[in-house]
Design goal:
This protein is mainly alpha-helical and about 180 residues long. It has eight helices and two strands. It has helices at about 5-15, 25-45, 55-65, 70-85, 90-105, 135-140, 145-155, 170-180; strands at about 115, 120-125. A two-stranded antiparallel ribbon has the order 1-2. A hairpin with a 4-residue loop joins strand 1 and strand 2. It starts with a helix and ends with a helix.
């Protein structure tokens, strides 16, 4: 296992224990540290320093926090490599990174791992209705009913709603679509 990748992963996760509120200076500082971690992980991968299932998992999780479509695709590829090498915990990450990649393109997610604020509440991003709970279970994802309950729990806990005005265009488009179908 690559010790530097492990340390980057542990730092990434530690910074999310008390995640800063969206839009604050602390939030933007975290996003910059995320970007710098991805730069370093790219260098480690390019130099052949990513070889074990754990290495691929650590790298995938760091890329999962990227913004660009290519970074999210990289997270999925790395998570799949980790799964292929036998790292069971990477199954959920492979599913979540695929879902995030689809979501950022405005498409329904396959497994149902991604939640978004719509200005009024947190909701489960649209899900492909042909995906079964058996498929979700095979990738260590909760059933669709359990995921919907998680969305409701987010709303019950009163987690602050980030402003939709600051949202990426793919989310603004979805909010408009949801509002037009709910009216």
């Amino acid at each position: 296992m690559n010790d530097e990748l492990r340390l980057l992963f542990e730092t990434d996760q530690a910074e999310r224990i008390d995640h800063p509120k969206y839009g604050t200076p602390e939030y933007w500082a975290l996003r910059e540290r995320d970007r710098l971690r991805r730069v370093r992980v790219r260098e480690i991968i390019a130099s052949g320093g990513c070889t074990t299932a754990e290495d691929f998992y650590h790298a995938a999780l760091i890329f999962q926090h990227g913004d660009a479509l290519e970074e999210i695709a990289q997270a999925h590829q790395l998570a799949k490599q980790s799964v292929d090498l036998g790292h069971a915990s990477a199954r959920w990450l492979a599913a979540a990174s695929l879902d995030r990649w689809l979501m950022v393109q405005g498409q329904p997610q396959k497994f149902g791992t991604q939640f978004v604020p719509d200005g009024k509440r947190h909701r489960l991003w649209d899900v492909d209705p042909t995906t079964t709970d058996a498929e979700r279970t095979a990738w260590d994802v909760l059933t669709l009913a359990e995921q919907l309950e998680r969305a409701e729990e987010l709303n019950r806990t009163g987690e602050p709603m980030p402003p939709v005005d600051d949202a990426p265009q793919w989310l603004k488009d979805a909010v408009r679509r949801w509002e037009s179908t709910e009216s």
